[in-house]
Design brief:
Layout lengths: L1 H20 L1 E7 L3 E9 L20 E10 L3 E2 L2 E2 L2 H19 L5 E6 L5 E10 L7 H9 L10 E13 L2 E4 L9 E12 H13 L3 E7 H9 L2 H6 L1 E6 L4 E7 L2 E8 L3 H12 L3 H11 L6 H5 L1 E3 L7 H4 L2 E3 H25 L9 E5 L8 H9 L2 E4 L18 H11 L20 H11 L1
Length: about 450
């Protein structure tokens, strides 16, 4: 843990240096695609009144000057499985974005969806020596937490203080400057497998980039997809990617839980490919153009041309009904949503005062998925799109780019984390995710 703590401290310093140079890249490394946005920070006075929306949109701080996407290679379940292929795909996306921006970038902030995330809710308390709370006091209260048993080979990716209390006054976002005798904190810690991080960092460093930040795609997707009221009252963001589906829970404006299901849109495509005996690329096209979740009487009569170039006249002219296609897709989508429900139940999501669920990510664009999710999850469900930011191309405004846009907002408005203060890296306490969510709800 000491290694990642020091690495995160270095990333923080690099991010400050990159923002002073006014240009930085954000890199969303997914299973099916790799997206790169290049941001230029030109100060708040330049872009006043542009097309950004919301206080978190960051439109007054940056503009997107370059954007590119490419098919991901060497990735599975959001993790690197082929270093050479992954490096080639990342380099392609970065070079294309630099060409559009007509500038070179040396620093990048990246997010990823794999590495089996696991959440812990922590608490600590210290006596105040001075009359007012300062950075040193916050560092001491974060260090007052006990070290958790989070397993061998796991590293802390996010460590965010989500609540502070002074004496009996709770719900403080930033206690600095306030007076009191005892300071307490609630900390959310997200851990991931360390080897997955090391592999991703190696690929990015081979592309002649210095890593200035690292984030979970579940977190940044929610930042761009959840509106302020949903983040405050309680909501879950379901980020349906190609190889995995991320789950993040927000309450009082902070992420208090995260998990992932190792199933995504590519598994649906694989079922279509096997069920219809067509190549993968053709199955993806059929899913995108004709896919759905609920068959009607008209779908029995709507025929889909399978096509092909195998040389077999009969096979290349096959047709299937849309109802048959939906019959192949629906069981896999139900399986994904059932796994999501199990994660939410394990986290104690039913204890939240508001139980809004937002679907985002490329896999959420299947017609009818919103209704299917509402029936399985039993909650209010809506489809989420990322906030608009200045300069973002129209082609990158869909749900598939929630992580990339959220990462840009994360770069412009980072939340204070454990390594932003003088905290010894040996102390982080442990609590199960279910107890964490219930504890936050009961004590706030």
């Amino acid at each position: 843990m000491r290694d990642l703590y020091q690495r995160q401290r270095r990333m923080r310093a690099l991010r400050k240096a990159a923002l002073q140079r006014r240009v930085i890249a954000v890199l969303d490394v997914g299973t099916s695609k790799i997206a790169c946005l290049i941001l230029r920070f030109d100060g708040p006075e330049r872009f006043m009144g542009t097309d950004g929306v919301g206080s978190m949109a960051g439109q007054s701080a940056f503009r997107v000057i370059g954007a590119a996407t490419t098919r991901a290679r060497g990735m599975r379940h959001g993790e690197v499985v082929n270093m050479a292929e992954a490096e080639r795909a990342i380099r392609t996306a970065i070079q294309s974005a630099q060409k559009m921006a007509e500038t070179r970038v040396d620093h990048a902030i990246t997010c990823f969806s794999g590495a089996r995330p696991r959440s812990y809710g922590l608490e600590g308390s210290v006596e105040l020596h001075g009359q007012q709370v300062g950075d040193m006091d916050i560092g001491r209260v974060l260090a007052a937490c006990d070290e958790p048993d989070y397993g061998d080979g796991r590293e802390v990716l996010h460590a965010q203080p989500v609540n502070f209390s002074i004496d009996h006054r709770s719900g403080l976002a930033d206690p600095r400057g306030q007076a009191g005798t005892r300071l307490s904190t609630d900390l959310h810690v997200l851990t991931v497998e360390g080897q997955s991080i090391d592999n991703l960092l190696t690929c990015i460093e081979r592309c002649d980039l210095e890593l200035a930040g690292l984030a979970s795609s579940s977190y940044v997707s929610a930042v761009s997809s959840l509106v302020e009221d949903e983040q405050e009252l309680g909501a879950a963001c379901i980020d349906m990617g190609g190889g995995s589906t991320g789950v993040s829970i927000f309450y009082r404006g902070h992420m208090i839980g995260a998990d992932a299901v190792r199933l995504g849109g590519e598994h649906v495509t694989g079922d279509i490919s096997m069920g219809l005996q067509v190549p993968w690329a053709q199955a993806e096209r059929i899913k995108t153009k004709h896919g759905g979740t609920t068959a009607t009487g008209m779908d029995d009569r709507e025929m889909i041309e399978i096509g092909g170039d195998s040389g077999d006249w009969e096979k290349d002219r096959r047709r299937v009904s849309r109802a048959e296609l939906i019959g192949i897709m629906r069981p896999r989508l139900e399986e994904i949503l059932e796994e999501v429900r199990a994660r939410l139940d394990a986290a104690g999501f039913e204890y939240m005062p508001s139980q809004q669920i937002v679907l985002t990510g490329g896999g959420s664009q299947i017609p009818g998925l919103e209704g299917l999710a509402s029936r399985i999850l039993g909650q209010q469900v809506r489809l989420g799109r990322p906030l608009r930011v200045a300069g973002l191309p129209q082609a990158t405004t869909g749900p598939a780019f929630s992580s990339a846009v959220g990462l840009a907002l994360f770069a412009a408005h980072p939340q204070d984390e454990w390594w932003d203060f003088d905290v010894p890296a040996e102390s982080v306490p442990s609590r199960s995710l279910r107890r964490a969510v219930k504890w936050f709800k009961d004590n706030w």
